[in-house]
Design goal:
The protein contains 32 helices and 18 strands. It has 735 residues and is an alpha/beta fold.
Length: 735
């Protein structure tokens, strides 16, 4: 970009400003004034704003200053607010990298955080400023904690009052400086010493915080005593209609006016008798500074930031009243209006602030401070702090992501897998929902001493199997992988169109480079949610904050939460169906498009890595076409030297009763069917493999506990099933 080239070629300082907009307000005016000053000093100036308003609603930038909009476009905006936040961060970072300012001054709440983080690993030094009430800009524990953590990492910190300084921790206090706002040049005038108009004036946005209502009601109380006086409130805002109605209700339409925003406000208020500021909160009010500089008698509320107290010595150059105290306002106003000599004394003392806050003097302070920040000799300490913060933030982000992932059996099964001690599993079973309710890992352990764990999710895509094997290999060295093959009969496009099936795998893996590779393999680049919401899945689940209140989820802080049933799910429902007639049928049917290729890729992977595997099909209400697909799969697996066990060919040996042993009309077994499937699997494993019986070993005490729990729960479930059969209470059919 040409700006980048210019930045390299030019030796003059480059000052950037970062703010929400240039909509007419106090902070915006300060930034525009500073921009004008630094331009006059020969600096290059760039004003970066998130948004822009119509020209008539914004302050005009001085000629020579460049304007850049940092917000993302409509085309870049997605559905996820979290994704959009990261897109804004990335765009702002690219602006600093491209324009290469020496320093950026930011202000107001989250903008300061954005400036600090997005300038990392750039040549730009951020200076953050708090121009309003610190407690309002940084409400709540999280915002305050972030300010105390991030602010010390900035190149500089500018506050406006001692009270604001005390709001922050010692790390911020040590680094912060207090710099005042300079006086707007429009208000540098000789104090008017002639007869004053009988006007009480105020300048400020018409909003709740400015509390113009109290001002109007106080004036109404004194209106009869001072019949020649008028109240004029300059400004615009959302409360205009409300305030106009209030004036009408009080019958003061001829005495109170709201002229809106005007360009020559200094000339309009210069001869006024009193200036009022009735805000609940402010930083250091520019309007108050300007009124004082014009030599107006001033009544202002004491705001939490201490901004009013920084400017006014009560009774000497103005009157300070408690915020929200109408009676105090009436009393102060009455005193000024009834005592012209006292009013003159206040005004003359007030005008002296013009010297203290003269633009040349104040702007020179800002320049000196900016120079000291830019000329800082080393960023090493800040860089170290930034790295530490990044690592801490990443750790917390990952942990919170684990906790807010949607709660359920799949999450519990995966976190339970990660909780298993390394290299203790004999078998890892991979597949869809026909895995975890069919084969009881605790029963298998109790009967044989074989440790088997199901790494399965609902409607698991066959493409995921290989990546789940690789995930398992990171912590386990099983002698055998068992793959449940039902999903290979499904249309591949149909499975990939519903990305919930993909998320069942990706959103339950621990964060790692392998997880990234899995996402890249399973999620297309043009996915509607974008791969970013898969990489950082908190973008998907950020609304699940209530999960953090669940003690059970805090056990997922490291995604190591023991599963008491070793991933097995007990079902005690009954959903009968007639025994399928196609079990054991011959003939072959090719797999849906893409599935044979996926299967062969898995077989090649297993063969290349010399892994032992068994391919199975759990019993269910299959169709003839599906049975013939399984025959075709068996032929393929046999060509690679791997066995294929289709339980649907052995109904009699299994002793399976479709009228009693299924929970949902032939899709999944209940606990009685699970016992029969597990028993048959045990027999097959004993006949074809040699596993060490590990019962009694101290390392496997949790498996002994799982077996005891299984016995108790299975007995209860069997009783429930028998009772339901006797009463004819069957599970509801899914539509």
């Amino acid at each position: 970009m040409k700006e980048k080239m210019q930045g390299r070629e030019s030796k003059k300082k480059h000052i950037a400003f970062y703010i929400g907009s240039l909509h007419k307000g106090g902070a915006e005016r300060v930034f525009v004034n500073l921009a004008e000053y630094f331009l006059a000093e020969g600096c290059r100036v760039t004003m970066v704003t998130q948004y822009h308003y119509p020209a008539e609603e914004e302050y005009e930038l001085p000629e020579g200053a460049e304007r850049v909009i940092s917000d993302i476009s409509e085309q870049e905006t997605g559905k996820s607010r979290v994704c959009n936040f990261f897109r804004r961060m990335r765009k702002l970072h690219r602006i600093w990298k491209s324009y290469q300012p020496d320093l950026v001054l930011s202000c107001i709440g989250k903008n300061n955080f954005m400036a600090i983080v997005t300038t990392w690993f750039t040549r730009t030094k951020p200076v953050v400023s708090v121009v309003g009430e610190a407690g309002e800009e940084y409400p709540g524990r999280l915002m305050r904690a972030l300010a105390r953590l991030l602010f010390p990492l900035a190149g500089g910190i500018v506050l406006q009052t001692e009270r604001s300084k005390q709001f922050f921790g010692k790390g911020v206090q040590k680094k912060a400086v207090i710099l005042p706002n300079s006086l707007n040049p429009d208000f540098i005038k000789e104090r008017y010493e002639g007869e004053r108009t009988k006007e009480i004036v105020s300048v400020g946005r018409l909003d709740k915080n400015k509390n113009h209502e109290m001002m109007i009601r106080a004036f109404a109380e004194l209106a009869q005593k001072y019949p020649e006086h008028r109240l004029v409130i300059y400004g615009e805002g959302e409360l205009r209609a409300y305030l106009e109605n209030l004036v009408k209700e009080l019958g003061l339409e001829k005495r109170i006016s709201l002229p809106g925003v005007i360009p020559d406000v200094a000339d309009r208020i210069q001869k006024a008798e009193v200036f009022l500021l009735t805000s609940y909160s402010e930083g250091v009010s520019n309007a108050l500074i300007e009124a004082l500089a014009l030599g107006l008698p001033v009544i202002a509320t004491d705001v939490p930031s201490g901004g009013t107290q920084e400017l006014i010595r009560d009774g000497e150059n103005g009157i300070v009243i408690p915020a929200g105290d109408q009676k105090a306002l009436e009393k102060a106003l009455d005193r000024i209006l009834s005592d012209p000599e006292y009013a003159q004394e206040l005004g003359r003392n007030a005008a002296r602030i013009g010297e203290k806050l003269a633009p040349d003097r104040v702007n020179a302070l800002w320049k000196s401070y900016f120079d000291s920040v830019i000329q800082g000799t080393s960023k090493f300490r800040t860089a170290v702090q930034a790295v530490i913060f990044c690592l801490l933030f990443l750790f917390l982000l990952i942990s919170v992501s684990y906790m807010v992932r949607t709660n359920g059996d799949v999450k519990d099964r995966f976190s339970g897998f990660y909780a298993e001690k390394n290299d203790t599993l004999d078998i890892v079973m991979i597949g869809s929902s026909p895995v975890f309710p069919y084969y009881s890992a605790p029963m298998l352990w109790g009967d044989t001493g074989i440790a088997m764990y199901p790494l399965s999710s609902n409607v698991q895509r066959p493409e995921a199997m290989r990546y789940l094997v690789e995930e398992a290999e990171k912590s386990q060295s099983p002698s055998l992988y068992i793959f449940e093959m039902r999903m290979y009969t499904f249309d591949q496009d149909g499975l990939s169109e519903n990305m919930a099936y993909t998320r069942g795998v990706t959103d339950n893996l621990k964060y790692s480079l392998h997880r990234v590779r899995t996402i890249q393999a399973l999620v297309p680049e043009d996915d509607a949610d974008g791969r970013m919401s898969y990489y950082i899945d908190i973008m998907k689940y950020h609304t699940n904050w209530k999960m953090l209140a669940l003690p059970s989820e805090w056990m997922n802080f490291a995604y190591h939460k023991k599963n008491p049933m070793k991933g097995f799910e007990i079902k005690d429902e009954v959903g009968p169906l007639p025994m399928p007639e196609c079990g054991g049928a011959t003939g072959e049917e090719q797999l849906p498009e893409g599935q044979e290729e996926t299967l062969r890729e898995l077989l090649e992977f297993l063969k290349t890595n010399e892994m032992d595997a068994l391919f199975i099909v759990s019993p269910y209400g299959e169709s003839l076409r599906e049975q013939q697909m399984y025959n075709y799969m068996e032929k393929i697996t046999a060509s690679y030297g791997y066995p294929f066990l289709n339980f649907n060919n052995y109904y009699e040996e299994l002793g399976i009763a479709f009228e009693e042993d299924f929970a949902d009309y032939g899709s999944h077994t209940n606990v009685i069917g699970a016992e029969k499937c597990t028993e048959y699997l045990e027999k097959y494993l004993k006949e074809h493999y040699q596993f060490e019986d590990k019962r009694g070993k101290a390392t496997y005490c949790s498996w002994d506990e799982a077996y005891e729990l299984w016995q108790t729960k299975a007995e209860t479930a069997r009783g429930v099933i028998k009772e339901r059969i006797a009463k004819g209470e069957y599970a509801e059919r899914e539509e």
